[in-house]
Each structure stands twice: as C-alpha cells, then as structure tokens.
Design goal:
This protein has 619 residues and is α/β, with parallel strands linked by helices. Helix content is 37%, strand content 13%. It contains 24 helices and 14 strands. Helix 7 packs parallel to helix 8 and helix 11 packs across helix 14.
Length: 619
C-alpha cells in the first residue's frame, strides 16, 4: 500500500520518547551489542558444560550440538494444563523440534515459567500474587536462558502477566533473535451479553450457584484463550502489531492444521535470523521506540486492557525505553476506536478475526498515518508486510493471501474513516486525588462524568457486604483503597463489577475509584483505577471519608475531591487492618511489595531505566 505520512502527534510522542530514553536506550543497546559480538557462547563452553547441555538429546540433535555449527533454538514455555489458553502448548515443543530439524537446526526447552490464571484466582487470596508473577516470569525467563546454549529463542505464552513477563525477560537477552508463538483462542461459547446477564442475576440473588456455574462453563469451555477482549487477547494483538508474531496468525484456533503450520513457519523463520547469517535480527534492535508507540496505538484502537497502562511501561523499560502515562494519553487523543469486542461490545475475538482481524486493523491504522510502517519485524518486513493472512493450500502447505480490505462486520470492526468513536478507549485522569486510568470505551457516554458522595472501603469484600446489606443507596462513588502494588500486590477487583452494575441498572449514578486494578474486563460502570500514589504510599485516597463529594470526569480527564483543601490537608491518613502478608505464599512476596514501583512507572520491582528514571517519575 502507498505510504501515508505519519500523523504529527504520533511523530511528536515518538520523538520525545526517543529523547527521554536516549541514555537508557544507549546503555541497553550497548549491552545487546556486546553480547551479540561474542557470537555463540555454546562454542566456547568447557566440555563438561556442553556435555551437560546435550546429554538428554536425541542422537542426531546431540551430533549437531557437538559439532557446534547448527543453530539451537531455546524454548521458554508457560505451559500448564490448568490454563485453557496454555494447554495447547503441551504439544508445541515436539512440533518445534521437528520444524527445527527440517532446516538442520536443533531446539530445546530452555525452561518453564509460572503461569497464573487470573480467572481462577479472581476474588481469592492468590490474586494478590498475580501482578508480581509478571516479574517472577521475567526472572524465570532469565534463569532459563542463562545456560547460554541458544542462538535464538521462542516464547510460548498467552495470558495476562505471562506475555509481559516473557518479553521483559527476553529483552534482557536482546542479542537473540526472537519469536512469540501464540496458541489461539477457544471457539466461541455462549454470547458474552448472556454471560454478563447471568452474573448480574446471581449478584441480585435471582439465580443460584448452579445456574451461574453452568453459564460460566458454557463460556469457558475448551482449550484456547478466553474469547473476550481482556489482557490475554490484548497481549496477542500487541505481539502481532509489534512484529513479534507471524502475520495474521494470532487468532487462529488451536488444534487445527493451520495453527500447526503457523508454528512451524515461526520456528523456521526465527532460525533464519541467527547471528552470522545474512538476516541477523536480534530482539533488542527489533523492539525500539517506534514499535512501542505502535503498541500504544493498537491498545487505543482496539479498546484494549487497562492492564497495559502498566505492562507497556514495564516492557518498554526492559528495552531501555522510558514511556509515561502522558504519552499514552496524548496518543489516545488522535487514535480512533476501530473495534468493539466484549466488554466493549457483544462480539468476541473470533468474530473480530472473521471480520478482518489484525490485517484489516493494521491496514486501516497505516492508512491513517497512525503507525510506524518502517519498523523491523520477525517476519523480515516492515509493518506493511503484515497485510496478509495465512491459509492452507490444496497440498496442505502454508500460503499467504492479502488481508481483508473491507470489514466483514461493521458492528465489530470499522474503518478509520468511520470509527466507533473518534478517540481511543482509555483516558488518563489527573487531579487532587492523584492520577488514574479510565476505560471509556465500555461506558455509555452519559456516564463518562459522575459526581457523587463517596462510600469508602478497604477491600472489595467490605463493599460486597455493604451491597448485600442494602446499604448502597443513592448516587455514590465507591472508593476501594489499600489495593495498590505496595499494599497487597494490586489484585484485580472483578467482584466489584456485578454489584455496582446492579446499582447502576437501578438508576443510581455510580462510579468506582481505586488504587487497584480491573483489567481488560472492565465493564459498563465508570471506574478510575490504578490511582497513584496509592493509599499506603502517601496517596490522597487514604484521606477520603464517607460523604466527600468526588468528581470522576472522563471527558475533561480529571479526578477531583470537592472538599475544602485546608481541611483535607489536615486529615490523618487512614490505615487498614486487612492482612495481605501471609497465607497462599504471600509472605514470600514481602520483598516484592517493598520494592514495587508506582503504577504509572510500571509497578515493577526492577529499575532498568536508571539514566532516565527521574524523567519518568515527573513526566
């Protein structure tokens, strides 16, 4: 397609990220280039070291590793069979080894990383480990690759904290060519609006647990990613739009011949990029400032998960790139919303894929000048090489055809010339309560501004009790605090949605303000989330009292407590006796809680932007 000039706002934001990151990015690339210049570390190992590394390999693989001339692909897998999205990965290592052998290479599982299912831990104590699992995954990735047996790497991961953690770890081995290999979504289950209705009926006590469980089981019913547009599928969108997936293969269902063919092609492609070849493409040089901005654009254009207002900052920092919420907010002002996928609509990701999917989305964003086309990708092309979709020929071989130029369903996917709304689905709010994020794409326009008295709670369970007791009457802003990364690991607070939705449907004007998370499943209730500074870190949210009037304004981008400033400043911050430091392994994560950064700096325990950190804190 004919290149379109880059939108001035996208160019402006990219330039300031480059300038802000100059020192940290240079230090990062020096690290990458030093490692790349050493070549294969495996060839320099002692004999005992190398013998340990190939002792369990098949005979032909062992011969290739002894010889040292064939590339060896490291597989880092997040497989477990409790996660529906990750269960398909059980069969991938054998397929990957076979594909590697076909091009004279070898492949080994370098290591596994933990993979939590937030759907299982929602509302349970284990959810308080969820965000920190991202940094644990980054650490586990580093441990896996520290054996230095590998010339390239592939990553098997899909869900919420897993892909961000894998990418953070992978970027610290940025001298290795890298591909992320998706597993694909499960087939569609019951309609999402039907599932949401049953949840609300349960919250009202109008159906029982049996009916609720049957509804959930019909929704989450087989191998593959959950089909709503939460963090897992936002991850997958990002990996393709950032050029780390093969084109068009992100939302192909698991267990199909096409899925296997895409996996084979991904393996053979990344092995063609190794050091010493003609197309060397280390990950650290693929993921640059332009790629990160492309990811931000994709997040807004699809109404993606609010978790990525945290994860994108942490992932970028692992590449020496410093981005801020201001960058996300400024990009959102010029990026139209092109997709409606539940919870922003009734469709699921299978419907999105059928309507034109990633190829159509990328075509529209490129045509509007909203993406950097001239980036490196694992596919060896610029982003315009992603305007294709895979299929199988008559002989069963993988073939590529041009991606859709026209949406197959305008209720799901629209052109940039006729979007669902003119701006992206996320807003950054600022005011005397701090900074927060609001997902506006799922909220009716008449509810983008809520001004009402506060009802303050120190846990989502306390709000649930008040709801069941009939205490939540009239218009209100529910304030749920002590839910930030330093307090308890910043769990997702999905148990808040059904009762607040019930109040809203009764005609009450309702909003939520919290220093916790709501993720990609944020629903129809307006919510100012990720409030920072958090309550235990000197945040103003710790001084809010019942009855204080709060204004949550998703139009002007403000979050204000409407009380006398002098009186408010004199208040003693509240404390909480809710325990989050023992049981379910939480005591092991005390160092993480102590080291966790602010939400608007990625909420990570790592400090990988030392030369630029002061800019990130104040930008």
């Amino acid at each position: 397609m004919k290149p379109t000039p880059l939108h001035p706002r996208i160019a402006e934001v990219t330039t300031r990220i480059v300038e802000r990151s100059r020192a940290s990015r240079r230090a990062y690339l020096d690290l990458v280039d030093r490692a790349a210049a050493e070549g294969s570390r495996r060839a320099k190992m002692g004999c005992a070291n190398l013998a340990h590394g190939f002792a369990a390999c098949a005979a032909d693989d062992k011969a290739r590793l002894r010889d040292g001339n064939a590339p060896n692909l490291g597989i880092v897998t997040a497989y477990n069979d409790m996660l529906s999205a990750h269960q398909p990965f059980e069969q991938f290592p054998a397929l990957i080894r076979e594909a590697a052998r076909e091009v004279g290479a070898t492949a080994q599982v370098a290591g596994g990383v933990p993979a939590m299912c937030d759907g299982v831990t929602q509302g349970e104590a284990g959810m308080e480990l969820s965000l920190f699992s991202r940094d644990v995954i980054a650490l586990a990735t580093a441990v896996a690759l520290s054996h230095q047996m590998f010339d390239a790497a592939c990553y098997l991961g899909v869900c919420d904290k897993i892909v961000p953690g894998l990418l953070m770890g992978a970027l610290r081995f940025g001298h290795l060519p890298t591909v992320f290999i998706p597993a694909g979504p499960m087939p569609s289950g019951i309609p999402n609006d039907q599932k949401a209705k049953v949840r609300q009926l349960f919250a009202e006590g109008r159906v029982g647990r049996t009916e609720l469980l049957e509804s959930e089981a019909q929704s989450y019913h087989g191998p593959g990613t959950c089909t709503f547009y939460g963090t897992a599928n936002t991850n997958q969108m990002l990996m393709e739009l950032m050029g780390l997936h093969p084109p068009g293969g992100t939302f192909v269902n698991p267990g199909t011949p096409l899925r296997d063919a895409i996996t084979r092609a991904s393996v053979q492609r990344v092995l063609s990029l190794v050091h010493g070849g003609d197309h060397f493409a280390p990950l650290g040089h693929v993921v640059d400032e332009r790629v990160i901005v492309n990811g931000i654009v994709g997040l807004h254009a699809t109404g993606g998960s609010t978790n990525h207002t945290i994860h994108l900052l942490a992932m970028a920092s692992a590449a020496g790139i410093a981005i801020t919420w201001n960058d996300l907010a400024d990009v959102a002002e010029v990026v139209p919303l092109l997709a409606r996928i539940y919870p922003n609509g009734n469709a699921d990701v299978n419907h999105f894929h059928a309507a034109g999917g990633m190829g159509f989305l990328i075509r529209e964003l490129l045509g509007a000048g909203l993406l950097h086309a001239d980036v490196k990708t694992v596919w060896g092309t610029g982003l315009d090489g992603y305007l294709v979709e895979p299929g199988l020929g008559a002989d069963g071989a993988l073939v590529w055809r041009e991606a859709a130029k026209v949406s197959g369903d305008l209720a799901v996917l629209r052109p940039a010339s006729d979007p669902f709304q003119a701006t992206g689905g996320l807003r950054v709010l600022s005011g005397n309560l701090g900074r927060a994020v609001m997902k506006t794409s799922a909220v009716a326009a008449e509810r983008h501004v809520i001004e009402a008295p506060a009802r303050v709670f120190d846990s989502q369970d306390a709000l649930q009790r008040a709801f069941k007791a009939g205490e939540l009457t009239g218009d209100l802003v529910a304030v749920v605090r002590f839910q930030g990364p330093k307090a308890n690991g910043m769990p997702e607070l999905h148990k808040l949605l059904p009762p607040l939705a019930v109040l809203q449907d009764r005609g009450q004007r309702v909003a939520l303000v919290t220093d916790g998370r709501m993720s990609g499943a944020s629903g129809k209730v307006p919510a100012a989330i990720h409030v920072t500074p958090e309550a235990v870190d000197g945040g103003a949210i710790a001084r809010v009292r019942d009855g204080d009037v709060i204004r949550v304004d998703g139009v002007d981008g403000t979050l204000e407590l409407l009380v006398d400033a002098t009186e408010f400043a004199s208040r003693v911050p509240a404390t909480t006796d809710v325990r989050s430091d023992e049981g379910v392994g939480r005591e092991l994560f005390a160092p993480f809680r102590a080291l966790a950064g602010r939400a608007d700096a990625g909420a990570t325990v790592f400090d990988l932007l030392q030369p630029a950190r002061s800019d990130v804190r104040v930008a």
